[in-house]
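Weekly structure sync, notes
Attendees: PL (lead), two postdocs, one rotation student
Agenda item 3: pending single-chain targets
PL asked that the sequence for the first pending target be pasted directly into the notes so everyone works from the same version. It is reproduced below exactly as submitted, 292 residues in total.
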Amino acid sequence: MGIVLALAACEKDIDISVDAGPPLVVVEGYINNTLRSYNYVIVGKSLRYDQADFANTPIEGANVTITTGIYTAGTGFTWDNSSKVKLQEVKIPELGSVKVPGVYFDPRIVSDSAHALMGVPGKSYLLEIEAAGKKYTAITTLPQPVRIDSLTNTASFKDDSGTVRARLMVHYKDPDTLGNAQLYYWKNVESKSTFGWGAMYTDRYIPSTDDLINGQAVHITHSSRLPVGDTLQYFLVSVERPVYDFWSSFNKARINGGPFTTPVSLKSNIQGDNVVGSFSGFSIRTATHLMR
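Predicted structure, written out during the meeting:
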C-alpha cells in the first residue's frame, strides 16, 4: 500500500510503501456463570492494518469447541473430554432468529436452553478453534465472583436537552487476595433491545485491579449520564489478570488515534499463528437499580 505524504515545504510527493502484513484471525470469546446466551465465540479475519476499529470479516464453518476442566497446583490443567461442547452458528431469538455468520453458540441454547453451556466459578475452560487448516487455542478460568454491596447514584441534573439524569455508583469490597480484577457492565432502557457484551454500557476505559486497593472498600462513580426513572441491570464482572490485561490493551488501542501514533500491543490470550483476541472468563454478580 502506498501512502502519500504532502509536505508544505517540498515540491514533490513522497511515496512510502508500507507492507500491510498477513491478515489476522480475530477471536472474541466469552464464558460466564449467569447468562447462557452470552456464552459465545466470534471468529473473524482482520481487514486492513490501518483501521483503528479492528473491523473484521466473519469466518464461517469453523470447528469451535469448549471443554471444562480444573487447575491443580503442581499438576496443571485436567480436562473432562465428556464435557466438550461443539459451538455452532445457530439462529437465536436474541438475534432476531437470524444466523449471524462467524458467531458460534452452544446449539442447546435453542433446543434445550436450561442445559446450554454455563460457566462455573473455580472451573477452567479450554477453547479450541479449527479454521482454514489452522488451529487456535485459549484457556480461561472463572474466579470467584465479588458481591455487590449496593448500587446508588449521584444527585440528578438536567442535560442540554432538559432530560433529568444522574450517574451510577457501585460499592463493593475487594477480596483480600492480590490479583483480583473487575470489569463493569450494565443494561438500561436504551440498551435492552441490543445483544452481546459489546452492546452493553461499560466503563472499560477504567477497569479496576486491586494493585492499590487490596482488601479495601471500593466506591466507583461511572461516567455515563443515565436517565432518572430508568431501571437498570448491573453486572460486576470478576476476571483473571490475563483477561483484564487484554481488555485494557484493547481499549488503549481503540483510542490510539490510528496506526501512526504510539503503537499499542494487544495482550492476546489466544495461542496460534497470526491470531489476536481474548477468551474471557466472566464471573458475575448482578443487581438492579432504579435511577432516582
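Discussion points:
- The chain is about 5% helix and 45% strand.
- Residues 25-142 form one domain.
Action: rotation student to compare against the earlier draft before next sync.
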